[in-house]
Amino acid sequence: QVQLVESGGGLVQPGGSLRLSCVASGSIFSINTMGWYRQAPGKQRELVAQITSGGTTNYADSVKGRFAISRDDAKKTVYLQMNSLNAEDAAAYYCKDRVTVKFGPGVFRDVDYWGQGTQVTVSS
After folding, report:
1. What residues of the chain score a pLDDT lower than 70?
2. How far apart are CA 83 and CA 4, in angstroms?
3. Which residues of 52-74 are buried (b: 16+ CB within 10 A; e: fewer)?
4. Residue 30: beta bridge partners?
5. Which of 14, 44, 48, 68 is deepest in the core (most CB within 10 A)?
6. Distance between CA 18 and CA 67 in Å, rounded?
7. Number of H helices, E strands in the chain
8. What whole-number distance in Å separates Cα of residue 114 and Cα of residue 98?
9. What pLDDT score does 1 carry?
């Protein structure tokens, strides 16, 4: 099995910054795309940012220029640096990794795994 554990959420004032981390562990052959999603109360979960194994990044329009996603493959960790936070950024943030898992001799499959979420609150 594969587990993802997020950290770094909390309470921040408008204009402030936070850095989220998500560490993967378990039966991992390789990690492909790593991403961050968020879900505010009463809203659908939405993609915030993602990064491929080759380093290509993609951001939601609402966070471009303020957020930066990065990864450390040796640590199996994806980060989300969030700057200039505002009230609209408040949500539960979830990481998602597309992981290649070895299920048996010569049997590999890509599986999506989610973290449990970390809360980001933006308030003065």
Report:
1. none
2. 23
3. eeeeeeebeeebeeebbbebeee
4. 100
5. 48
6. 10
7. 0, 11
8. 9
9. 86
